[in-house]
Each structure stands twice: as structure tokens, then as C-alpha cells.
Amino acid sequence: MDTTITGFHQDAEGDWVAELACGHGQHMRHRPPWTERPWVTTPGGRAGKLGAAIDCPLCDRIVMPANAAPYRRTATFTEETLPAALRSDHRTKAGTWAHIVVESGEVDYHVRGRVHRIRPGRPGLVEPEIPHHVTPIGAARLHVEFFRVP
Questions:
Q1: How far is CA 19 from CA 1, 5, 57, 65, 120, in A?
Q2: Residues 6+ positions from 121 with CB-CB distance below 8 Å
Q3: Which pLDDT band, with edges at 50, 70 and 90, does 1 fall under?
């Protein structure tokens, strides 16, 4: 997500952090040859970047709201019993989030033109109203946990 640089501060190690309009911060290091940002080393260089557009990867991260409360769980499905509706694009309702929980095996989670491989221990996060579907990879067991935002 695009935002702008509104200021700078140094972290505990002395590295410069850009303060972004979205409220996040992003390190701006000059560490040649891997990272070339000589402008960050001078007050004038940093001042010249105020108002500059920058991509904020933290804004792109999908995070379930802290006040989302669980309200329902599906049965456990296998690669053979997974309903056709979950194998094709579908959506949750407004305000409804979900976790796709893989109990064993692997499942591909298709969302926003990308494919995420889900394994036990790392559920797939479903956003409200966003089309998605799942594809089991061989033998798999999974269930879905639903959450609502009050």
C-alpha cells in the first residue's frame, strides 16, 4: 500500500526509521553494496524525502482484528469429503473472518491471485467478502474456524 514519509527517528541501534503517514515505521539503512541510500546519512537528505511516496508492506499484511471473536467451527474434512463449495470461489459475509486450519497434510489456499501452501501449525487467514478457495494436496485433513467482529 502506498503511503508517504512524514518524518524520521533513530532506533536503539542508531539506524534511521522513516515515520509513515499510515502510522507504521520502515527502516532506511545505507549499507552498501546491498542497500544504497546515502541520502539517509544527512539531515538534508532525510528532509528531501519528507512527503515522498513509499510502499508500506505492513499495510499490505492481512491481520484479523483483535476484537474478532470465534463463533463457529466446521467439521473436519478430508481430501475426499471437502465440499465442492470450498473447492470453488466463495466468500465469507461482511464482518466474518476465518482460519483455514490444516490438521494434517497440505492445502493450497487460493486468494487475490496468489496461492499459499497451508500446513499444520499455520492457519490460512480468510478476510471478509474476499473470493477464495482451497485445494487439498494429496491426503489432508482440515477444518474452518469462523470469527465475527462485534
A1: 15, 6, 14, 23, 36
A2: none
A3: low
